[in-house]
Amino acid sequence: MAREKTNTIHPIKAVDVALKLTGTMQNYAWGHDSYIADLQGRDPSGDPEAELWFGAHPSAPSETSQGPLDSVIARDPQAQLGYDGTLPFLVKLLAAAKPLSLQAHPSLEQAGAGFERDNAAGIPLDAPHRNYKDANHKPELLIALTPFRAMAGFRPVAETIELLDAFDLPELAPLEDALARDDVEESERLAHALTLAMKCDATSSVEKRAGELAEREDFIGEAARNLAVSRASTPVTAGSSPRCCSTTSASTQARRSSSVREISTPTCMDWVWR
């Protein structure tokens, strides 16, 4: 659930007639081919169905008997919301068949400036290469409907260095060197290490060493065990992601054998992610 910008907390207004919302589908490549369709009791569309949006976001508002929800609210916000403004949240139903892309959300100030910059450049709201589709930051509330695995944020740098040191593999030395530098800001060290991690190819040696460290009772043993889980091929149905430097995958029994897909996360990503 992503909140839209608002400076005031408004009381919920009682309405005489509730509007039935028809969600708007987002067909991102990581979406599942049947999970949302199964929930809705319909046949799959044949396309990946990633997110079903319920709200008044201008790029994909829900439909109502009175028209798109953003237009309904704009005509008479007092009648619909009880105040002059916009709907301050967006509800999304996510179904992920693959790990989501890495994402970072801006601050409210960055979002406002970026939105104005994209508008000034004449980039359409629905353009794939547009970075800012509204002027809001995106604090989110996540509610899991199925088991899933999510990673958000970074380990403390000192802890990551200790983890890399415990694995003691030459393939991982560049990551440790990048994090151990003392001549640049921590954010730059993390950015460099993340870039190296995404290019790292040390699968066999990392898996072998993880097996050796998995019996440890400290955070290094926990990381080694998590690494083994992330490398295992897993049936997937649905998942969700907190969108702040995160990636996610779901792990649960697929409802239909034809929809089972196998996934695994990049080995070296687990050095940096929590």
UniProtKB/TrEMBL annotation:
What EC identifiers does the entry list? 5.3.1.8
As cofactor, the record names: Zn(2+)
Q: Which residues form the Phosphomannose isomerase type I catalytic domain?
A: 19-157
Q: What GO terms describe the biological role, i.e. biological process, of this protein?
A: carbohydrate metabolic process; GDP-mannose biosynthetic process
State the reactions this protein catalyses: D-mannose 6-phosphate = D-fructose 6-phosphate
Which region ranges are annotated with the description Disordered? Answer: 46-68, 238-258
GO cellular component, alphabetical, reads:
cytosol
- Which keywords does UniProt give here? Isomerase, Metal-binding, Zinc
Position of the signal peptide: none
**Single GO molecular function:** zinc ion binding
- Compositional bias segments (type: Low complexity): 243-257
Q: Which family does it belong to?
A: Belongs to the mannose-6-phosphate isomerase type 1 family.
NCBIfam families this protein is in?
Answer: manA
What's the name of the protein?
Answer: mannose-6-phosphate isomerase
Organism, scientific name: Corynebacterium lipophiloflavum (strain ATCC 700352 / DSM 44291 / CCUG 37336 / JCM 10383 / DMMZ 1944)
